[in-house]
Design brief:
9 helices, globular, 12 strands, 6-stranded parallel β-sheet, two-stranded parallel sheet, alpha/beta, about 290 residues, about 40% helix
Length: about 290
């Protein structure tokens, strides 16, 4: 099976390059070789590869900057997935696409399920919701996976930021009134790989949540990171109001992954377990590896 993968240098994409290799021949692209803001380039790359499966792991993920760059965020997160879906439909191929917990407004006290109504609070969330709808409108075989608070041993993410700041500051101030499920990119890639063949032949399609079990706040997440690393730097809980950002974020965006677990027996580990596994890896990498 030929697989076209976008975002190969991103957190999930980097893992997918490796995990998808046993499933088929992976043709992977980064931003330099496939710019999702360029529709003609998208069409050209898909036609060059002629894939049976497209995995779109690329996205515009700068949540705050998207408030000022909403057009670019929409082009990458909404228009491009629609084009990929149209090309998949033309080829008779399937598309796996990732979305986000930020399609919800965070007012719900229980974990969100797939049938809950989205209501994004920021430009990033609106662009990702538009991307989901564009994939659906394309009419291709598809699997949309919503995930949350993604982190890994490489790139830019909350875990690596906290570790860096802990070495530079005597105290960290972290928001404690936003709750979600930190999800390791490797867990997402592993689950995606298990689903890839079924998606390609149409055994499974639709929209599913794929996030770690459990939930915590950003402050709780930071404290667990430092505890597991044995770093004795205090983390002071603050409110969202004490740390204003350009983009409004949901107060609680915990996703229930029960539907995917029931259908395919795929469930990600509890978030602390995966964090510990990830941190063991970050300890073995030097700065240039990350």
């Amino acid at each position: 099976m030929k697989i076209l993968l976008t975002g190969k240098k991103g957190q999930i994409g980097w893992e997918l390059v490796r995990s998808l290799a046993p499933v088929g021949e992976v043709f992977s692209f980064d931003h330099a070789s496939l710019d999702l803001a360029d529709p003609d380039q998208i069409v050209a790359r898909v036609r060059e590869v002629n894939p049976e499966l497209i995995v779109n792991a690329a996205a515009y993920t700068a949540v705050d900057r998207a408030e000022d760059e909403s057009e670019l965020a929409t082009q990458v997160n909404a228009v491009a997935p629609g084009i990929l879906g149209e090309q998949a439909k033309r080829l008779g191929a399937a598309l796996i696409h990732y979305s986000t917990d930020y399609v919800f407004d965070g007012t719900q006290s229980t974990p969100y399920v797939e049938t809950d109504s989205p209501n994004p609070l920021n430009a990033y969330g609106r662009s990702k919701l538009a991307g989901e709808r564009a994939v659906l409108a394309a009419g291709c075989r598809h699997l949309i996976l919503r995930t949350s608070w993604v982190y890994g041993a490489r790139g830019r993410n909350f875990v690596l930021t906290i570790l860096r700041l802990a070495h530079a500051r005597s105290e960290l101030r972290v928001v404690d009134d936003q709750v979600g499920a930190p999800t390791w990119c490797r867990d997402v890639a592993t689950a995606t790989t298990r689903l890839a063949k079924q998606v390609a032949v149409g055994d499974i399609q639709g929209l599913y949540h794929l996030a770690a079990k459990g939930a915590t706040s950003w402050c709780g997440f930071a404290r667990e990171i430092l505890k597991l690393r044995g770093i004795d730097v205090p983390v002071r809980a603050i409110s969202t109001g004490e740390y204003p950002t350009p983009a409004q974020r949901p107060a609680s965006s915990v996703l229930s992954s029960a539907a995917l677990s029931a259908r395919w027996k795929i469930a990600l580990p509890e978030w602390r377990i995966s964090l510990a596994n990830c941190l063991r890896e970050t300890g073995s990498l030097d700065a240039q590896d990350r």
